[in-house]
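Input record, target 12 of the design panel.
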């Protein structure tokens, strides 16, 4: 695991966007795994800026999103499909046929999940998977207790996640109870992982991910076993870490992990 601690959310977003942009330059037909949530919004804005100012080219990029609520139409303003188009896709030159997002309205969810896994393989597998983390240590909607070998499937959300996500809905009862999510095993097959987190609300989950035991009770902790996982966080999210990471200057770390 490679840990990069930044001073601010903005710097964290810049660092993460630069990693993604660098990978896209190096491999224009890269397959990206993408995440929703408030954390990646800053880095998506920076990618859009790089597209507009420097011509960062998404025309050959393929994306697979991690998850989607069950029961929301793609055009629902809280669906992850809507989020991705509004926050990133409609501002860049990505081809719609290269965008894959789980279909929360599928009437054959199991069949859809198998198809999604197959599609990832057909496209050559995920080169770089972007992840956020839940305050409870979830990655995508793999809630605590999820099998570390799990594949794309339907999951029931925990009370904590419903509570956390209710801020986007008019009332808590409107938050869907189920979601389709890539499994932990699916995520671990990505060739490279980039997890972003900011704020004190994530400090405990980040601490368990980096310094805790590998355990399904904190699904993100499995990233300790990934050969190429990078955790890019801000000072607040790093505030409970006991290791030396937060004392190493940002410049030192980034210059030692270029590709
Ligand atoms: P957030 O969500 O970025 O909105 O905090 C992250 C997650 O739950 O995975």
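The sequence produced for target 12 reads:
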């Amino acid at each position: 695991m490679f840990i990069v601690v930044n001073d601010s959310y903005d710097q964290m977003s810049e660092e993460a966007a630069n990693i993604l942009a660098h990978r896209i330059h190096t491999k224009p037909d890269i397959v990206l795994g993408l995440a929703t949530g408030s954390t990646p919004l800053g880095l998506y804005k920076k990618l859009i800026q790089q597209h507009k100012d420097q011509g960062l080219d998404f025309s050959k990029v393929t994306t697979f999103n991690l998850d989607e609520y069950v029961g929301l139409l793609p055009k629902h303003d809280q669906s992850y499909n809507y989020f991705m188009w509004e926050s990133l896709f409609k501002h860049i030159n990505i081809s719609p046929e290269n965008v894959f997002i789980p279909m929360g309205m599928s009437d054959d969810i199991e069949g859809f999940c198998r198809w999604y896994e197959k599609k990832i393989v057909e496209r050559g597998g995920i080169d770089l998977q972007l992840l956020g983390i839940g305050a409870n240590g979830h990655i995508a909607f793999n809630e605590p207790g999820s099998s570390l070998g799990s594949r794309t499937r339907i999951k029931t959300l925990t009370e904590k996640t419903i509570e956390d996500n209710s801020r986007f809905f008019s009332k808590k009862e409107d938050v869907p109870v189920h979601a389709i999510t890539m499994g932990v095993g699916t995520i671990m097959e990505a060739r490279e992982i980039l997890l972003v987190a900011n704020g004190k609300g994530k400090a405990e989950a980040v601490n368990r991910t980096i310094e805790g035991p590998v355990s399904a009770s904190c699904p993100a902790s499995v990233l300790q076993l990934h050969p190429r996982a990078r955790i890019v966080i801000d000072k607040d999210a790093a505030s409970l870490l006991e290791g030396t990471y937060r004392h190493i200057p940002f410049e030192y770390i980034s210059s030692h992990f270029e590709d």
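Residues 37-39, 132-134 surround 2-phosphoglycolic acid (CB under 6 Å).
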